[in-house]
Amino acid sequence: MERAGLSSSKSTYKKGFMYYVKRDLFLYLLLVLPITYFIIFKYIPMYGIVIAFKEYNIFAGINASEWIGLDAFKEIFRSQDFIRALRNTFLLNGLDLILGFPAPIILALIINEIKRNSFKKISQTMLYLPHFLSWVIIGGIVLQIFAPGFGLIDTLLKSAGLKTIPFLTDNVPWIFTYCGVGIWQSAGWGMIMYLAAITGINGELYEAAEVDGAGRLRKIWSITLPCIRPTIVILFILNVGKISAIGFDRPYVIGNPEVRDFADVISTYVYRVGIQSTRYNIATAVGLFQSVVGLLFLSVTNFIANKSGEQGIW
């Protein structure tokens, strides 16, 4: 009887699985393309990680290249240029996190308080439009506005008889220019996610707050922010996980030799040492190091969030 019961439960399970597959066939088919994309472009290329442990020769291929163990990692950790690039990466990403992470939240709260729908739509469009601009275009705009000698701000300061500010040629002003341009480019796009979270808040909560005499600031503090807190926590965890990774285009376009001590980050270091010098094992070793550090930060931040009673990403 036990065997009969076991076999019947298995057949029920099989029937149940096929039932759901047939019922949601088109939904499963929709998964084919994204799963194929991740397998081809994310998982299969992981095999290339072994280049970090070999003296890679593009003519011999990965398998025929000589094993060198951890020599590439020893070399990059002894390199002062890599240490400087690593420091700059953490510095710029840390400032982006501190200064840039609250910006889309604040924008979403402001846009949500606008009552006129036409003005709200125009404001949203103008705010997230910079996200679609290439960093090459943004770099040209930055040059026209902040460049010493002929930039718009420099010209206005000179005409007013004031001292000019070296936004692009001095380390400290360049750092804040870099962060400000990044916030301008990305804050409007990040705002969309928070606006979506705010839209899901039950309107009866605001009505009850109005009955109790709560003003706009009190409703934002007591209703809006607590309701979108799970979204804030998840996005914060994801941003912390990317603190060791930095894009190539932004520091490369805005940076220049005058501020190389702070503009040289891991991505530009990999381009200069790994790609231009054809040291592919060095480039792969740096990328693997970035991934491990990012995973570590992501795991620690997620653990802290879970222990604090918030919902993490797993």
CATH topology: MetI-like fold
Globally, the shape reads globular
Rounded average pLDDT:
86
Query: What structural category characterises the helix and strand content?
Result: mainly alpha
Q: Please report the number of helical segments.
A: 17
The CATH architecture assignment turns out to be Orthogonal Bundle
* CATH superfamily membership: MetI-like
Fraction of residues in H or I helices: over 70%
Main attributes of the structure:
about 325 residues; mainly alpha; MetI-like fold; two-stranded antiparallel ribbon; 17 helices; 2 strands; globular
What's the structural blueprint in terms of helices and strands?
Elements: H1 2-23, H2 25-30, H3 32-43, E1 54-55, E2 66-67, H4 71-78, H5 80-100, H6 102-112, H7 117-128, H8 135-146, H9 152-159, H10 171-199, H11 203-211, H12 216-227, H13 229-241, H14 249-254, H15 260-263, H16 266-276, H17 280-307
Antiparallel strand pairs: 1-2
Helix pairs in contact: 4-17, 5-10, 5-16, 6-10, 7-10, 13-17, 16-17
